[in-house]
Amino acid sequence: MAKFFFGRCESVFDCIQKMQKIKIEAVLVDATCLLSAKHFEVAQSLAQMAFEQKTNISKDISMEILIFLSCQTHANNAILKCAAKDMKPAILVVYGNKAVEKKQLKEIGFEELDFEFEKCSEEKLNSAIEQMALSRVI
């Protein structure tokens, strides 16, 4: 099950490099692009399915998740649309088996902030999930 941390990184690039170095499986998402835990779980499932079916766009599962969340078919567009930005509110989603402690967040340069998912209607969430699922249909 994924664990969600709300905050920001001074340097997203440095955060990602440090996470990779200590083998934390996570994705940093712009806080405005992720509606709920369910939204992420569907994107993660779609990304895993893409790898299993060999229809993945990216070589990296984190990037594939970001591609689905953004409903894009190009990694660069997904980054522009939904990747975390330096010093902007972000959500760090840890989805791997490795547990992450609060002190590790500081070590990777992630500053926790006090905010949560905004409430969204079931209709809006279902629409976003449908868009993700259809983003690969040509």
If you had to describe this structure to a student in words, what would you say it looks like?
- This protein has six helices and four strands.
- It is α+β, with helices and mostly antiparallel strands and 138 residues long.
- It has one domain (3-134): 2-Layer Sandwich (PF0523-like), CATH 3.30.2380.
- A four-stranded antiparallel beta sheet has the order 2-3-1-4.
List keywords for this structure.
138 residues; PF0523-like; 6 helices; single chain; alpha+beta; four-stranded antiparallel beta sheet
Sequence stretches where pLDDT stays below 50 over 5 or more residues: none
Q: Indicate the CATH topology.
A: PF0523-like
Order of helices and strands: EHEHHHEHEH
Compute the separation of the termini in Å: 31 Å
From the alpha carbons, calculate the radius of gyration and give it in angstroms.
14 Å
CATH architecture: 2-Layer Sandwich
**What is the CATH class name?**
Alpha Beta
Note the main sheet: 4 strands, antiparallel
The overall pLDDT average reads 92
Tell me the quaternary state.
single chain
The total count of strands amounts to 4
CATH level 4 superfamily: CGI121/TPRKB
Helix content: 40-55%
Strand content: 5-15%
Brief rundown of the structure:
The protein has helices at residues 12-21, 37-52, 61-70, 75-82, 102-107, 122-134, and strands at residues 3-9, 26-30, 90-94, 110-112.
